[in-house]
Amino acid sequence: MDEIPYDVKPHPVTGVYNAKLGIWLFLASEVMLFGALFSSYVLLRVGADTWPHGYDLLNVQLATLNTAVLIGSSVTVVMAWASLKLNDLSKAKVWLWLTVVLAGVFLVVKAFEYGAKFEHHISPATDNFYATYFTITGLHGLHVIGGIIAFLVLLIRGDKMWQDDSEHFTNRVECCGLYWHFVDLVWIFLFPTLYLL
Amino acid sequence: MAESAEEIRHHIAVYKKVGLALAALTVVTVAASYLHIDSVAMTVTIALFIASIKGALVACYFMHLIDERAIIYWVLIITAVFFLVLMFVPLLSEADSVGI
Lengths: 197, 100
Hints:
The complex is a heterodimer. Chain A is mainly α. Chain A has helices at 18-47, 54-57, 60-85, 89-119, 128-164, 166-196.
């Protein structure tokens, strides 16, 4: 079976390995996806006669906790990559597990937030504010789940991948890390936009 | 990026500092929201300014954009142009509704 070229060494034309260019192109498409939702939010908010303040309706304390959790997970995933660069697989796996745990905590906190709304019969159909809130945070939550799956694959198959080609495995962690930092970055803008304005 | 062990250890120290800075800026964001400034434009500006600093820290240090290849910068520049166009669509719609 032919191997995919330049999955470890940089491509002579681009200067980066192919997967890295691929993940950045994917993230570019993600910017447009979330950009479309932000744009819709601005359109609805500017066009509305009245629009509630997020801090009056949403739980700012839980969202602040989730912001700290995601920032923490960004640190842990970059520490996993750094550990692999230092040839320490076992430490990298600990950092990756911590990332998965923090991502899980984020989802649990989000579930509590959603649950409190559903208990009060509040749903995306309630009004435009909640429609945008549930749509954007829901899509972001799906990205968190996607990240958890990617990290679990790396953790479950990590030993074999590391044995087969340690540099390739390090690059895979770097690409998943780039995706995860993007998920964190989206939340950094979602948090003030939805909760604090 | 083929860094030495020494360089990676330097990176790790930077990651920890950036993590702390992000946590501190989160506290500042929440504290600023309690000011309840009357001007909506000022509130939005402050919130997005702090979020932009946090975003820049994540992009520059965690995503290594501070030391990346030109092709990645070009991908992001093109994305930024299209993103700005997307953000101006509501403005065009608003201008249309008031007959400009």
